[in-house]
Structures are given as structure tokens and as C-alpha cells.
Amino acid sequence: MLDLEERIDKPEKLTIPVLVDPAVMRAARHIYRIYTEIHPNPKRTPIGVAIDRETHRGQVCSGTKPILLPGECFIPLNQL
Question: What is the separation, in whole angstroms, between the first and last Cα of the chain?
Fold first, then answer.
């Protein structure tokens, strides 16, 4: 088990389960499905979907770390 100083220095080792609203999950799955229909062979590998919790508008993200706007959450592909 990590001591407190190691947890503060290396926050990426902490995994906190995040519960996502089922409606947000449905919208993220829909966004990703439409993306795969339009882009059957994407040039960049998607890592997940950034989606607004209120409006359910979002987009597929690629790269290493998504940049989120206030009110958005990130849903990785392994949760879709």
C-alpha cells in the first residue's frame, strides 16, 4: 500500500471508480457509433469520448490525455 506522500507525488496510481449517468453513457455510445460509421478507418486511434453532462453533446478524442471543458466528463473506450 502506498503511503500518503507517494499518493500525493504520483496521483496516476490512484484509481477511483467513477459512476457515470446512464443517459450520458448512452449518448457517448451513440457518438462513438456514429463516429465509427463515418470513419471506418480512422487515421488516429480513438481513446474515448468527451461529453457534456448537461447537453450530452460530445466528441471522440484521440491522443494521450483528453482536454476537457468545464461540465464535461471523459468516458474511455473500455467503458463504452
Answer: 30
pTM reported for the whole predicted model = 0.75
Measured CA to CA in angstroms, residue 80 lies from 10, 49, 55, 66, 69 at distances of: 27, 9, 19, 16, 20
Residues 6+ apart with CB under 8 A from 18: 73
For CA atoms 54, 80, 63, 36, give the dihedral sign. Answer: negative
Between the CA of residue 30 and those of 24, 50, 56, what are the distances in Å? 10, 12, 10
pLDDT digit string, tens, across residues 32-46: 999 999 999 989 999
| C-beta neighbour count of 59 within 10 angstroms | 13
